[in-house]
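The pair is quoted verbatim below.
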Amino acid sequence: MSSVPDGKKLVRSPSGLRMVPENGAFNSPFSLDEPQWVPDKECPRCMQCDTKFDFIRRKHHCRRCGRCFCDKCCSKKVALPRMCFVDPVRQCAECSLVSQKELEFYDKQLKVLLGGGTFVVTLGTSDKSETMTCRLSNNHRYLFLDGESHFEVELSRISSMQILTDGTSPGGGTSRASGMLLHYKPMGSQDAQQLQMEAAEDKKLASLWLAAMHKAAKLLHEARDQ
């Protein structure tokens, strides 16, 4: 184990090298824990094709699910940023498809969230609204809202999230995201607070941001249910 700048450390696990926060409390809320590998003695056969292992047919563990497979059924190496691996790692066919779909979020939608969008924000049942820029923090743990005032929402304290739409778009296409309704518990409080956001000037950018946030919500839900 060796320390590197920016509060992260390089850790070698049986699955490969991982770049993780120095303090585990600062893990990204999208991150997943490494799975426990199925013990070798409990998998005499490939858990996909049922091929029996021997000196020629070696067993391999999927780095995402921890199950045991032959080389044919676990040959793909795919990036797995949710487990902080530095390099692409071996995964079974099923897991590799899931990881490949998640890469779109990390390659595209995460950048949209970090860049931010402009919204008209209303707190609770207040009659007052404020135009604010909302963006995801660099460590992925907070939503920063900046306008005349500033406040933060910790993603781990969001209890519900609903994407609002503007109805059917012209031509009968799919509806476009126009806002978001959040319920969350502020730090030091057990009482839920409501936050409503409606797209401001650049509605196209706001819609892209909201679509990315919708995907982020799915990853958050998966991480919590792990």
